[in-house]
Design brief:
This protein has 133 residues and is mainly β. The protein contains 1 helix and 10 strands. A hairpin with a 2-residue loop joins strand 8 and strand 9. The protein starts with a strand and ends in a 21-residue tail after the last strand. Bound molecules: zinc ion (ZN) (2 copies). One zinc ion (ZN) binds next to helix 1.
Amino acid sequence: MTTEKIHGGCLCGAVTYAAETVYRMYLYCFCSRCRKKSGTAHSANLFLDTQYFQWLSGENHVINYRLPDANGVTNCFCGTCGCRMPRVTEKGVSIPAGSLNTSPHAGPDKCIYWDSRAPWLPSREEIQKVADS
Ligand SMILES: [Zn+2]
Ligand SMILES: [Zn+2]
């Protein structure tokens, strides 16, 4: 079986990774914790089995902040530039789609925690589009 590879990394270039496009799912999450972690209206994470993920550089540069009293809630980011980086556990990997250098070659499966979305979240149609600025 051949699968397409995706590549990603942080802004400063210390951390890079590759993965295969065999996702379990691709979710946009609108929960309040994901807003905090991402600094924006929602997270966009690709989930896959650990065997399909590979650090290429800087794995020891990634800080895993575990939220006290919230089992499993972790924020993983580059220790130098602060970019969100993949979270790797034995059970699987979540890749923040915004950290990719390439297309994920897939669209999101669904939006979760939609009822928790920020009250200030406008529809995309309402926002002025500017090609380059
Ligand atoms: Zn970095
Ligand atoms: Zn969330």
